Amino acid sequence: MIKLVNVVKSYDGYIAVNNVSLQIEAGSFTGIIGESGAGKSTLLYMIGGLLRPSSGDIFIENVNIVGLNDNELSEFRCNKIGFIFQFYNLVPGMTVRENVELPIIISNRNRKEMKKAVEELVDAVGLSEYIDRDVTTLSGGQQQRVAIARALINDPVVILADEPTGNLDSKNSNKILELLHEINVTKKKTIIMVTHSEKMLKYCDNVITLSDGRVVK
């Protein structure tokens, strides 16, 4: 379970997230929606430990990540949280395999021992025939599938997706959404997805609506 208690994030007097308290159940697929500037991505990045709140507490599996030091937070993030971004954040010049392996390297796990896991994940997202191709040769939808495989490689408990279809056409958007739904159902992963499009919420169990940094629904 994820629990936020009175979470605030401010920048030089501007309040991006304003006293948010909420709970997200383990294994759920939750959508966060709101207008541009509503605080959606800021909230997501605080849940993922990429940003620290100005005040408040964030619990993931009963661990208050706000109380962790930088090294502890980095280790927690690497082992517990998978990230999927709008612009993929893949490393150009590296293959599909090498990009999926990156979290393994960061967590100091053995690449040879994880080879099978990498290949199984790449196969699961439908890219086995491209595994040794440079990611820059792939389409946008294929690159986002690589990003999803990379997010799963360390078997995180939570997957955070920030506008994962925002850079894709409607056909590829639906494919990515269906893949995330499949991961949620079959692997029981908790998924939190930020979007500005209500069309992308059809597989969500819960929807959180933000406006001016506050939860309004």
UniProtKB/TrEMBL annotation:
List the keywords (alphabetical): ATP-binding, Nucleotide-binding, Transport
Recorded hits in PROSITE patterns, A to Z, give: ABC_TRANSPORTER_1, ABC_TRANSPORTER_2
Q: Where is the ABC transporter domain?
A: 2-216
Record has Coiled coil as a keyword: no
Q: Per its UniProt record, what Pfam families does this chain match?
A: ABC_tran
Domain of life of the organism encoding this protein: Bacteria
Quote the InterPro entries the UniProt record gives.
AAA+_ATPase, ABC_transporter-like_ATP-bd, ABC_transporter-like_CS, ABC_transpr_LolD-like, MacB-like_ATP-bd, P-loop_NTPase
Query: CDD domains this protein is in?
Result: ABC_MJ0796_LolCDE_FtsE
Q: Which residues form a coiled coil?
A: none
Question: Membrane: is it a keyword of this entry?
Answer: no
GO terms, molecular function: ATP binding
PANTHER family the UniProt entry points to: ABC TRANSPORTER ABCH.1, IMPORT ATP-BINDING PROTEIN
Write down what this protein is called.
ABC transporter ATP-binding protein
